[in-house]
Amino acid sequence: MKYLKFLFWLLLPFTIKAQYKPTWESLDSRPVPAWFENAKFGIFIHWGVYSVPAWSPKGTYSEWYQYWLQTKQVYGNNNPKPTAVFDHHNKVYGENFSYYQFADLFKAEDYDPDAWAKLFERSGAKYIVLTSKHHDGFALWPSREASKAFGKPWNAMESGAKRDLLGDLTAAVKKTSVKMGFYYSLYEWFNPLYKNKQYKQYVNEHMIPQLKDLVNRYEPDIIWPDGEWEQSDTLWQSREFLTWLYNESPVKDKIAVNDRWGKGIRKKHGGYYTTEYEVGATFNRPWEECRGMGFSFGYNRNEDIEDYNSAQSLVYLLLDIVSSGGNLLLDIGPDAQGKIPPIMQERLLQIGKWLDVNGEAIYNTRSCKTTVQWSTGRRDWKPAAGMVSGEAMLKQTVNPDPGFAVKEIFFTRNGNTLYAVTPQLPEGKFLIRVLNTSAKTTVQMLGLKKPLAFKKVKEGIEVTVPKLSVKEVPCEYAWTFKVTEVI
């Protein structure tokens, strides 16, 4: 009996799961769930009351419509006129039309969450992040706190749509293999409590109850906070919330979170790190770049075809990010009727078609010590300041300015298999540098059945690519060479 008691106490530390404490040292010790680092490609969805006016100057965020309107200031690319949204609103809707009246026009009458979910699967995305509530405070689910705070119907169930938009999409996505996540703005521009600096009451009676309601009711795979920058993580009670999330919540074993938990916290604490409309980032922790297909996250009907990134540049952007160890969270902005604009659908399907052939080089991979192979020339090309278009990747791959180098090959790795992805289709012999092969090494282009001939040379391996007919070329934009048994 004494021996059994001794054995019980000996094994007890291994039978009780470690509990996280409300300190960054403890919380940061929790690994980012492996599924997130394996996913590589996700879809951001900005959808809300701002989808009704769906307008802002080019190069700015249309989902900030209320802020642009009520403050008479706009900022972003192209030096927008400060009163541009205010002037537009008064011209189209009249100066007495309140932003809050858009809630009755946000009806989502054409919304088909199952069709959305099928599109996401076909795109090759492994997770989505939907705006449960943006900075205007409007909730896409029947949030009691949202309507109470504003003293009027201010959620999708009680206003125009009369529907749990978030819940319906969650149910549809959970029928698929795609993971479901929620964006949540910690602050709200014009919430009466927040605006009057009743911060403690705002957090305790509004923000924390809303967050816990989202988690308990829908059990997401991601919580993606934003709007954190005005206040400290202490005021937001971020560490206390994360302690509950990791220790007690129904998603404690699977949930992934980002780094937007308080002023000065980004790229220092939290889960995975985030960037926004950037190129060239790299970190020693899982990370994610988020951006729209144009320059807005919410649907902006003011944008034209030239404002949208091409499918080619989006594939190169994905390659650049994944080869550097990150994920791409690519945004779409549905309209107020619940339709995803056709150009956005097209881009997602084009990426999905490329991933059908080359997904092996993306999913479940990790970055290599050498992330890219450069051509000769200068490597210091920089895009213009501001939000960087994905089209910048064309300058770094297939359309460089005179004298500048290009990224000839992007590298990813899965165990002893290396993937070398080329933005230009090689023909004849081409060199993959700095590569240690073994006697068992084989080289194959994904999408072609036959292995390719190669030989070891001083700089690496020289691969022979046969001349391919139009029908034989397996995909567009970029081509993957799978090199096995790499040492």
Automatic annotation (TrEMBL):
Write out the GO cellular component annotations.
lysosome
| Record-linked Gene3D superfamilies | Glycosidases, Golgi alpha-mannosidase II
Marked site: May be important for catalysis: C290
Instruction: Give start and end of each Alpha-L-fucosidase C-terminal domain.
Output: 407-484
Which family is it part of? Answer: Belongs to the glycosyl hydrolase 29 family.
GO BP field: fucose metabolic process; glycoside catabolic process
Signal peptide residue numbers: 1-18
Q: Name one GO molecular function term.
A: alpha-L-fucosidase activity
Keyword Transmembrane helix in record: no
**Membrane-spanning regions, if any?**
none
Q: Does the keyword Hydrolase apply?
A: yes
Domain named Glycoside hydrolase family 29 N-terminal: residues: 17-360
SMART domains, per database record: Alpha_L_fucos
Alphabetical UniProt keywords: Glycosidase, Hydrolase, Signal
Stated name of the protein: alpha-L-fucosidase
InterPro entries in UniProt: FUC_metazoa-typ (IPR016286), Fucosidase_C (IPR031919), GH (IPR017853), Glyco_hydro_29 (IPR000933), Glyco_hydro_29_N (IPR057739), Glyco_hydro_b (IPR013780)
Which species is this UniProt entry from?
Chitinophaga niabensis
Q: What is its EC number?
A: 3.2.1.51
Q: What does this protein do?
A: Alpha-L-fucosidase is responsible for hydrolyzing the alpha-1,6-linked fucose joined to the reducing-end N-acetylglucosamine of the carbohydrate moieties of glycoproteins.
